[in-house]
């Protein structure tokens, strides 16, 4: 069994990106890339995630601006986003979710300039993804990271049966589309799916993104499956994945841990998207 060490893979990716950024800055008169992060509310997990993202920016040489407001109206938040949309020194904008009650997340995300939408949530990017126009879009960070981890195990995925457990707009659906574009046969399971164990037994690749700790056990899996656990539920101060790691590790050919699997790659892909926003912004 291969442990897919997302922390280690992300560290290698970030070092390569740092080298690209440093080389570019040393060979040109351009400024460094800049990411703006907006957080609203007092969600403890969001505070930790934002801190990780800011620190990762520093590690690779990306500048960052972080704004945190405990309480903000939707109109004030939209005004803040518009200022960043117009600021020529800011290349990418991230609004940390979840937002506080009373703010329409869909409307807020739609207000971000698509050219600066580092999360790839804007309808324009979603449309490009579903049309298979990947060269013209920014991919959501977690699905992009998931694909990077799968390809770390196996490059050619054509003909494999992939099962995505979860159908969220942020993870499940875009993961399914990326696997489809990689020529997998793709099944999406959700809360109304009947006989999930039967589907799991058929899957060469399992992406677990249901938010239900321990939902998938080793006896459910096909022998030799690649298992990517996106689940991160905090129980008694500890992060738990959707996959029961101990039992699944006895059956899978490769599996991600929680924590230390998908999370680090999500941040690495955020940095990559910021770099891509920057290159387009300066006309490269």
Tell me what you see in this structure.
It is a single chain. A hairpin with a 2-residue loop joins strand 9 (233-235) and strand 10 (238-240). The strands form three sheets. Strands 1-11-8-7-5-6 form a six-stranded parallel beta sheet, sandwiched between helices. It has helices spanning 6-27, 44-60, 74-86, 105-111, 123-130, 141-153, 172-181, 196-202, 245-248, 262-281, and strands at 2-3, 34-40, 63-69, 92-95, 161-165, 185-189, 205-208, 226-229, 233-235, 238-240, 254-255. The chain is globular and about 55 Å long. By secondary structure, it is of the alpha/beta class. It has two domains: 29-114, Rossmann fold (3-Layer(aba) Sandwich), CATH 3.40.50; 141-263, NAD(P)-binding Rossmann-like Domain (Rossmann fold, 3-Layer(aba) Sandwich), CATH 3.40.50.720.
Give me the CATH fold name of the largest domain. Rossmann fold
Residues in helix, %: 40-55%
* CATH superfamily placement of the largest domain: NAD(P)-binding Rossmann-like Domain
- Tally the helices: 10
Pairing-aware structural class of the strands and helices?
alpha/beta
Tally of distinct domains: 2
Q: How large, in whole angstroms, is the Cα Rg?
A: 19 Å
What is the CATH class designation of the largest domain?
Alpha Beta
| Poorly predicted segments | none
* Backbone shape: globular
The order of strands across the largest sheet is: 1-11-8-7-5-6
Separation of the first and last Cα atoms: 42 Å
What is the averaged pLDDT score? 96
Question: What is the makeup of the main sheet?
Answer: 6 strands, parallel
Order of helices and strands: EHEHEHEHHHEHEHEEEEHEH
Share in β-strands: 15-25%
């Amino acid at each position: 069994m291969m442990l897919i060490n997302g922390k280690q893979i992300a560290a290698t990716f970030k070092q390569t990106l740092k080298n690209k950024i440093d080389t570019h800055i040393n060979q040109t008169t351009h400024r460094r890339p800049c990411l703006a992060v907006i957080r609203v509310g007092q969600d403890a997990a969001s505070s930790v995630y934002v801190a990780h993202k800011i620190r990762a920016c520093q590690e690779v040489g990306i500048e960052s601006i972080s704004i945190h407001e405990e309480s903000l109206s939707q109109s004030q938040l939209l005004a803040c986003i518009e200022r960043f949309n117009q600021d020529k020194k800011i290349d990418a904008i991230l609004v940390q979710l979840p937002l506080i009650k009373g703010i329409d997340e869909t409307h807020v995300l739609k207000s971000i300039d698509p050219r600066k939408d580092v999360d790839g949530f804007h309808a324009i990017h979603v449309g490009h993804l579903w049309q298979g126009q990947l060269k013209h879009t920014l991919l959501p960070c977690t699905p992009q990271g998931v694909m990077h981890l799968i390809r770390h195990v196996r490059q050619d995925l054509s003909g494999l049966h992939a099962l995505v457990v979860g159908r969220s707009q942020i993870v499940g659906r875009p993961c399914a589309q990326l696997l489809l574009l990689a020529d997998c046969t793709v099944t999406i399971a959700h809360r109304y799916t009947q006989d999930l164990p039967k589907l799991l037994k058929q899957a060469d690749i399992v992406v677990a993104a249901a938010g239900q700790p321990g939902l998938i056990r080793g006896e459910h899996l096909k022998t030799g499956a690649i298992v990517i656990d996106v689940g991160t539920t905090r129980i008694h101060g500890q992060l738990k994945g959707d996959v029961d790691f101990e039992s699944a590790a006895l059956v899978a050919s490769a599996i991600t841990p929680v924590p230390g699997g998908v999370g680090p790659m999500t941040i690495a892909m955020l940095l990559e998207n910021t770099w891509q926003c920057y290159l387009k912004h300066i006309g490269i």
